[in-house]
Amino acid sequence: MRALVRETSLEPGDLVYPLFFNASLREPKPISTMPGIFQLPVSMAAAQAKEIVAKGVGGALLFGLPEKKDARGSSALDPDGPVPRAVAEMKSAAPDLLVITDVCVDEYTDHGHCGILRKRRGGEMEVDNDATLEVLAKMAVVHAKAGADVVAPSDMMDGRVAALRKALDLDGYESTALLSYAVKYASCFYGPFREAADCAPQFGDRAGYQMDPANGREALREAALDEAEGADMLMVKPALAYLDVIREVRKATTLPLGAYNVSGEYAMVHAAAAAKMIDLQRAIMEVLTSIRRAGADVILTYHALRAAEWLGA
Ligand code: PBG
Considering only Cβ atoms within 10 Å of each terminal Cβ, which end of the chain, N or C, has fewer? Predict the structure, then answer.
């Protein structure tokens, strides 16, 4: 009877698995704060794609670590960079796998910020919103050319959804979809990711472009802007400290909605389980179910492969 009246479902197909491809690696390299998660060599992309499909997981989200970084994140536009290469390998090994790419320059800039910098009048450096849009749009086209089904801008520059849509359409990629990290908070829960993607800002923080955790109404404004600019799907990030925001955005849009169960949320569950404070499997299932209950259609989560096994794809 409980099964019959259960209000929230959770299936492997609701989950998206994030992957880190590092151009300099020949072997997987463990990420110390995220048990079971590795930076991977591009040579492992095909095998990963097959495993994700075999487990019934709904898609893959790709991040790249280039060989070289500079102030403008030039390697983000390299068609032979780790992401375009991994996309191509994954799509040819598993054509039915939905491949999503993260579009942001923070993994490619030597300063670790999500955009191109300029000097403010006072002498301080700040991110130049509009100069960054050009790079992001080119990066999205490079990913689409490589075969990405969906591009996901995570930079939080204003106007980037429209800029990406326009660039993709001009180059003939009108069927490449756009998943916008529309509501992204300046959060401490990205801590482990910054090791995973080697992108900790070298000065300052990201509060100039990411959202204040105290703001709920602003989330609705950000979501509405990205919808108007042509996003096909929206995302709220992080997930757990923002379940109320997921619920509110769910009510405000008819677009498909994702939530990113981020690196720090993953690390906390594993740390608590390793300390025998909680049961790992029950904790993961409860976390994922709560995100679905709050209103997310899709959950981007490092738990995806393990959860899919438990759910018995
Ligand atoms: C930016 C980006 C970040 C994450 C995804 N895309 C880091 C940030 O904004 O600092 C975080 C994901 C996670 O913590 O799991 N490219």
Answer: N
Q: Ligand 1 test: best mutation among 113, 190, 194, 262, most atoms within 8 Å of CB? A: 190
Asked whether 229 lines ligand 1 (CB < 6 A), one says no
pLDDT of residue 46: 98
Separation of 106 CA from ligand 1 center, angstroms?
9
pLDDT of residue 197: 87
Angle at 36 between CA 31 and CA 41, to 5 degrees: 60
- What is the C-alpha end-to-end distance of the chain, expressed in Å? 22
Does residue 185's CB lie within 6 angstroms of at least one atom of ligand 1? no
The DSSP annotation for 282-299 comes to: HHHHHHHHHHHHHT-SEE
Q: Is the CB of 33 under 6 A from ligand 1?
A: no
Q: How far is the CA of 4 from the centre of ligand 1 (A)?
A: 38
Q: What are the catalytic residues?
A: 184, 237
- 75-118 pLDDT, tens digit per residue, is 999 999 999 999 999 999 999 999 999 999 999 999 999 998 99
Enter the pTM of the model.
0.96
Has residue 278 got a pLDDT over 90?
Answer: yes
**CA dihedral in degrees (122, 128, 131, 134; nearest 10)?**
170
Are 70 and 26 in contact, with CB atoms under 8 Å apart?
no
Q: Please give the angle made by the CA atoms of 183, 118 and 111, to the nearest 5 degrees.
A: 70
Residue closest to 111 by CA, chosen among 198, 196, 33: 198
- The pLDDT, as a whole number, for residue 199 is 87
